[in-house]
Every structure is written in C-alpha cells, then in structure tokens.
Design a protein that fits this description.
Shape: elongated
Helix content: 10-25%
Number of strands: 6
Radius of gyration: 25 Å
Strand content: 15-25%
Distance between the termini: 25 Å
Largest sheet: 4 strands, antiparallel
C-alpha cells in the first residue's frame, strides 16, 4: 500500500500542476484493460495498478502461486535423446536431429500459469474533481 500512496502523491504533486519530470510516467486516464495498468514488482511479488483515483483495485500475485500442482518438468529421457541428437548432428543429418531435439521438451509440454493471489481494494476518500487531494492543498 505504501508504494501506491507514494505513486498517487508523486504523480500529482505541486498543487495539481503537472510535473513533466522525464523520470516519471504519466497517464491521462485510468486503465480500461488489465494490461494497460502500471505493473510494479520485486521480481517475486507483483501487482498491477489500474490508476483509478476514487476506488482502486490492485491485483497482486506471487511467483510461487501457479495453476495445477507440483510436478517435475525434467524429461527423464533427456540424456538418451541428447546423445542421439549429437550422433545425428555428427552424421550431418540435421533434419532428423532437429526432429529428435523436439523430444527434449519438458513434460508436460504446456506450462502452468500464474494465478492472482488477491485483489486489494482501496477506497480513497480525499478525491476532488477526479484527482487526489494532496494534504495541504487548498
């Protein structure tokens, strides 16, 4: 929540005058689709900020939260397949080597997907004319 508050305050500072600092990102309207939001992340924990000022829903997730259950994607036949691919390459049979290499894919070949961990809804009551009222602003 601290990151969002800092984002909200910094993006409309100086009494409502736009600060065109080249190190800032400016949005002229809230996101209408999830992928239009502002992603923030630590490399493990991530959230997407939509940019609404009255009521904000921040969707967040963690890298350890996936669809499905635990599994080992390593292909147990990998060493045998790799030896065969090397043999085919040394024999200059590149087409067969390429086809054989396709069997090196993980098992299962489809990957799991990130799942949302939760949604944090913030109700911001200090909204004036569609923008945040900065403390000390008249």
């Amino acid at each position: 929540m601290g990151v969002f508050v800092a984002y909200a305050v910094l993006s409309y500072g100086q009494g409502g005058k736009l600060n065109r600092n080249e190190m800032c990102w400016w949005y002229d309207r809230p996101a209408t689709k999830y992928w239009e939001g502002l992603p923030i992340a630590t490399g493990r924990f991530a959230a997407m900020i939509g940019g609404k000022t009255g009521e904000e829903d921040i969707v967040f997730n963690d890298e350890t939260l996936w669809s499905g259950g635990p599994y080992d994607p390593n292909n147990s036949n990998g060493p045998r397949i790799l030896a065969n691919v090397r043999k085919l390459i040394l024999g200059k049979d590149y087409v067969s080597a390429s086809e054989e290499a396709m069997q090196l894919n993980s098992m299962p070949t489809s990957v799991q997907h990130y799942q949302p961990m939760g949604v944090l809804t913030l109700f911001l009551t200090a909204v004036v004319a569609g923008r945040l009222k900065i403390i000390g602003e008249s």
